[in-house]
Every structure is written in C-alpha cells, then in structure tokens.
Amino acid sequence: MDSRKNTSSKAETTSKPVLKQKSRSVDSGRGKTRIGKAAKGKSGAQADIDKHYQEILDWFARNNPFAKSELHYKNAYELLVAVILSAQCTDKRVNMVTPALLARFPDPLSMSRSDQEEIYSYIKSISYPNNKAAHLLGMAKMLQSDFGGQVPDTVEDLMRLPGVGRKTANVIASVIFDKPAMAVDTHVFRVSARLGLTHDAKTPLEAEKQLVSHIPENILGKAHHWLILHGRYVCTARKPHCEECGLSELCPYFQANWDGDASLSADAKETASSRPLESPEKEPARMNESVSRKEPVSLKKSVSPRKLASAKGKSASSKGNSKK
C-alpha cells in the first residue's frame, strides 16, 4: 500500500503520530508544549535555554494553535509545485497561478510530457518564470523516471529533484510525510535569531541544527509555521512591529534595540533586513514574502502599558542625562 497521502491545506490534520525526542515531551493540550525535565548533568545555561524555548513555544501554541501553510494544495505533488514556485514570490501570487497550472498538469506524468515554453505560459506572472519552468519540467521528468511518478518521502531524495533545496525538501517531508524536519527560510532564520532561539548561526543549516536540537520532534513542523508567519506579519525584516508583539518581553532583540518611542534604534533598523543567502540556482533566499501586512489577530498582542511606560521613562531619562 502506498503510504503517501492526499492532503488538503484547508483541513487541519489531527491524527499525526507523536514522535518524541529523548528527555522531551509535548503536551498536546491547549497551548502547552513541554521540553521536559532537565537531563542529568545539564548545565544551568542549558537549562536557561530550555526554559526560553519553553516559554516561546507555549506562547505560540496558545496564540496560533492551528498554524499551517498559506499555500493551496491537495497532495504532495501540488505542494511540491507550489513551494518551488514560491521562491522569491508571495504565497498569494502562487495561489493565483497554481489552479490553472495544475488543471493543465494534474500529475507529474502530464507535466513531464509538456515543454518549458508551455509551463512558462502558465507561470509567467511570478518571479523567475524561465528558471522555474525549467525546474518544474525537470522535476516532473525525474519523478517519472526515478520515483515511479510519486513524490519521494526523504529529504535526501527530494533534494535530488531540480529546483528543490533543503528548505523545500524539509517542507514536503514535514507537511506531507509527518517527518521531524525544520524548514528554515529567511523568515525562520531572522525570527529565530531575534528571539534568541539560535545563536551565531551563519547559515540556514546551522540555524536548522540548533532549532532541531531544542524543539520537540512532534511540533517541529508546526514550529516552522509559527516562526514563518510571525516573520511575515509581525517580526518583519524592515520596521518589525515590536510594539505589537506578544513576545517582546522574551525577545533579546527587542530588549537591546527598544528606544522608548515605539520604534527600533537606528542601528537596529540598519541591520534588520539581514538574511542568509542561498544559491539562486536552487532556491532564492527571499521565499514566501507576503504582500499583505494583514495578519491573524492571535499573532499580535500589544506590549503591556507598564512595559511601554518603563521603556519610555528610561529613554527620557537617558536623553536628559545626555543633554547635561
């Protein structure tokens, strides 16, 4: 029996198997995630890191329990096509293109029998249409020749496909096949660094390794969606909405850069848009950018009045001292 499943992005899956890491457990109840008791001999610093992860994951679980991909798809093939198209393109734009594209090419076989020009005609309104048309055609042909027309279920096999980098492979492995994988795109990379979930990670792979080592396996996929949605709508690259973020009191980036005027310091603004670079041949760095700032209310939570007053008071005091 084929273990691959048809999955609609509009329905929340509730029967995923629970995969546990050593010394980690997850409470699937309301808004609770549990990293577990400290392992024997664990340092105080490591215990502090675990506590920090615990608090952030708990907040996301409470405030966005049904996080999922904003791409529209019904099965592994459709999600694979959509994620390849989403490189340096908004999910909104991809969702406008895929209905006609997938009506014409409902499976790898039909796409493999087409040509680059025809595929291009369906996706010419998105970014890098020539490259993506070539990737889609090559992907479909390899699925037919090497995988019997089925989307493979391992990261290693997925990365053999044209247009599929590690991030895309992790998305498919996690969302479709319930594998414990963390896809790191520019949003996840930025948000995890600002929140102090990763430290000195220079590449998406380094960030992935750090996140995987601390987040329970059975919520890795959901954690990816938590971080990516937070990056799209709240913790944006430029002018992040720190004053509206419910995680500000746990955020080292906010604590270091808050200037008391509901904005970030000049230095922070200058470096806010830094992001890891990836090979444009495989997967452009800016993925899944959203053109809309509208966001689920649950993702935003105003900073407490006490916090604002305290920050503004400190800022006013420091400005007064500087004038003296």
UniProtKB/TrEMBL annotation:
<keyword id="KW-0004">4Fe-4S</keyword>
<feature type="domain" description="Helix-hairpin-helix DNA-binding motif class 1">
    <location>
        <begin position="156"/>
        <end position="175"/>
    </location>
</feature>
<keyword id="KW-0456">Lyase</keyword>
<keyword id="KW-0408">Iron</keyword>
<dbReference type="InterPro" id="IPR011257">
    <property type="entry name" value="DNA_glycosylase"/>
</dbReference>
<dbReference type="InterPro" id="IPR003265">
    <property type="entry name" value="HhH-GPD_domain"/>
</dbReference>
<feature type="compositionally biased region" description="Basic residues">
    <location>
        <begin position="31"/>
        <end position="40"/>
    </location>
</feature>
<dbReference type="InterPro" id="IPR003651">
    <property type="entry name" value="Endonuclease3_FeS-loop_motif"/>
</dbReference>
<dbReference type="Pfam" id="PF10576">
    <property type="entry name" value="EndIII_4Fe-2S"/>
</dbReference>
<keyword id="KW-0234">DNA repair</keyword>
<keyword id="KW-0378">Hydrolase</keyword>
<keyword id="KW-0479">Metal-binding</keyword>
<feature type="region of interest" description="Disordered">
    <location>
        <begin position="1"/>
        <end position="46"/>
    </location>
</feature>
<protein>
    <recommendedName>
        <fullName>Endonuclease III</fullName>
        <ecNumber>4.2.99.18</ecNumber>
    </recommendedName>
</protein>
<dbReference type="InterPro" id="IPR003583">
    <property type="entry name" value="Hlx-hairpin-Hlx_DNA-bd_motif"/>
</dbReference>
<feature type="binding site">
    <location>
        <position position="235"/>
    </location>
    <ligand>
        <name>[4Fe-4S] cluster</name>
    </ligand>
</feature>
<keyword id="KW-0326">Glycosidase</keyword>
<dbReference type="GO" id="GO:0051539">
    <property type="term" value="F:4 iron, 4 sulfur cluster binding"/>
</dbReference>
<feature type="binding site">
    <location>
        <position position="251"/>
    </location>
    <ligand>
        <name>[4Fe-4S] cluster</name>
    </ligand>
</feature>
<keyword id="KW-0255">Endonuclease</keyword>
<comment type="similarity">
    <text>Belongs to the Nth/MutY family.</text>
</comment>
<feature type="compositionally biased region" description="Low complexity">
    <location>
        <begin position="310"/>
        <end position="324"/>
    </location>
</feature>
<dbReference type="InterPro" id="IPR005759">
    <property type="entry name" value="Nth"/>
</dbReference>
<dbReference type="GO" id="GO:0140078">
    <property type="term" value="F:class I DNA-(apurinic or apyrimidinic site) endonuclease activity"/>
</dbReference>
<dbReference type="GO" id="GO:0006285">
    <property type="term" value="P:base-excision repair, AP site formation"/>
</dbReference>
<dbReference type="Pfam" id="PF00633">
    <property type="entry name" value="HHH"/>
</dbReference>
<keyword id="KW-0540">Nuclease</keyword>
<feature type="compositionally biased region" description="Basic and acidic residues">
    <location>
        <begin position="267"/>
        <end position="298"/>
    </location>
</feature>
<feature type="binding site">
    <location>
        <position position="242"/>
    </location>
    <ligand>
        <name>[4Fe-4S] cluster</name>
    </ligand>
</feature>
<comment type="function">
    <text>DNA repair enzyme that has both DNA N-glycosylase activity and AP-lyase activity. The DNA N-glycosylase activity releases various damaged pyrimidines from DNA by cleaving the N-glycosidic bond, leaving an AP (apurinic/apyrimidinic) site. The AP-lyase activity cleaves the phosphodiester bond 3' to the AP site by a beta-elimination, leaving a 3'-terminal unsaturated sugar and a product with a terminal 5'-phosphate.</text>
</comment>
<dbReference type="Pfam" id="PF00730">
    <property type="entry name" value="HhH-GPD"/>
</dbReference>
<feature type="domain" description="HhH-GPD">
    <location>
        <begin position="85"/>
        <end position="233"/>
    </location>
</feature>
<feature type="region of interest" description="Disordered">
    <location>
        <begin position="265"/>
        <end position="324"/>
    </location>
</feature>
<dbReference type="InterPro" id="IPR000445">
    <property type="entry name" value="HhH_motif"/>
</dbReference>
<dbReference type="GO" id="GO:0019104">
    <property type="term" value="F:DNA N-glycosylase activity"/>
</dbReference>
<feature type="binding site">
    <location>
        <position position="245"/>
    </location>
    <ligand>
        <name>[4Fe-4S] cluster</name>
    </ligand>
</feature>
<keyword id="KW-0411">Iron-sulfur</keyword>
<dbReference type="GO" id="GO:0003677">
    <property type="term" value="F:DNA binding"/>
</dbReference>
<keyword id="KW-0227">DNA damage</keyword>
<keyword id="KW-0238">DNA-binding</keyword>
<dbReference type="InterPro" id="IPR004036">
    <property type="entry name" value="Endonuclease-III-like_CS2"/>
</dbReference>
<feature type="compositionally biased region" description="Polar residues">
    <location>
        <begin position="1"/>
        <end position="16"/>
    </location>
</feature>
